[in-house]
């Protein structure tokens, strides 16, 4: 799957914040290549794996600190079913779809983290959302960091390589949070491009056609197909795009889920990948480290599951009670006194999150966002779902996803309002400095019985490397 050097070794390039060329790649579509390879291998093992295509997980079953399975819906038929399990591993991805401009897949609506939250598991560090600097203008589609790794420039509307002002050593290969804030500063101060001066440029022209088509073909086609720009001849309009969720379900180093601020574990419940928060990334992930995390902790989770599953006894699940809880939620959505438009609520939420809880934040903006989310949560209780059927009811699934987005967006805002400092991807103009004395701790959001939340904290575990100021 990987690109190779002339000596047939795996090729490597630098990504943002890297001190060495350590990013292995496949042109500029590494994830795509790996996904196809992994899917192919899983299909080869047919009899060893049972794949439930077109099923949608709706509820996590945890009783008395023990995970017992999930409730899921067969979207082809609308049938609900309880899946009994001694161990459950979530790999449900991030929550970037709460933002209007995002690189995330349409399915990244935080379904897994909200299922855990509603089952009594706290969510950790939800305020830390990474914004990638090279999102395609107005679409948010990711233009890979490979573009800057291969030597692409970032230009403002005056065709100036502005990163020399913000990261004079690393320039375009500074960490994502610094580069995104630099772009947003250029835009906010009137040095953006276009008639509205609301974007900057990714310039690849000096790389030449041959290098672009060999090393960056996907970027070329995305720019051409979506906004009609030929990257060989013209700079590409870009803007920061919500990209990665540092927060999520808290886990230990073996992906076992943590249930409280003292570090107790939920028996039989595991999480790995972007839905989890083992916190190897802290408040800001470096490029390529997400894949590294998935490989390392996917492996650790599998080994630990193999070890502990035989030791956990099967326990009874009240199927009727679990199914009734899910049916009640669905019936409430389908049969409410409907007056509100689902798409309008989702769009207003996403615009609010992008405009007021984005690259730059203030207490005033987040307070306003908090009030807006409460208004949208109230309006959602009267949301109109046109399709009342059971077969492939995507309208219902969109409503369920929106309920999740409204719930976790409130936690992003709450964590950000409480954290009166700037750290990594969380930057507050009213508290622009990092404050290790007060805020070297993880935020934990617990769901209350009335549907509200409570914030608690647990200390950051510092081992080999002491925190220090970053200089680029």
UniProtKB/TrEMBL annotation:
Where, subcellularly, is it found? Membrane
A Pfam family assignment: Succ_DH_flav_C
Segments forming domain Fumarate reductase/succinate dehydrogenase flavoprotein-like C-terminal: 346-472
Q: What class of enzyme is it?
A: oxidoreductase
Coiled-coil stretches are 359-386
User: Can you cite an annotated GO cellular component?
Assistant: plasma membrane
Q: Which SUPFAM superfamilies match?
A: FAD/NAD(P)-binding domain, Succinate dehydrogenase/fumarate reductase flavoprotein C-terminal domain, Succinate dehydrogenase/fumarate reductase flavoprotein, catalytic domain
Regarding the membrane, this protein is recorded as: Peripheral membrane protein
Under Enzyme Commission nomenclature, its number is: 1.3.5.1
Q: List, in alphabetical order, the Gene Ontology terms for molecular function in this entry.
A: electron transfer activity; flavin adenine dinucleotide binding; succinate dehydrogenase (quinone) activity
> What GO terms in the biological process aspect are recorded for it?
anaerobic respiration; electron transport chain
Cofactor section: FAD
Where do the FAD-dependent oxidoreductase 2 FAD-binding domain residues begin and end? 2-291
Q: Can the keyword Ligase be found in this entry's annotation?
A: no
Keyword line: Coiled coil, Electron transport, FAD, Flavoprotein, Membrane, Oxidoreductase, Transport
Using the UniProt record, give the first listed, main subcellular location.
membrane
User: What family is this protein classified in?
Assistant: Belongs to the FAD-dependent oxidoreductase 2 family. FRD/SDH subfamily.
State what protein this is by name: succinate dehydrogenase
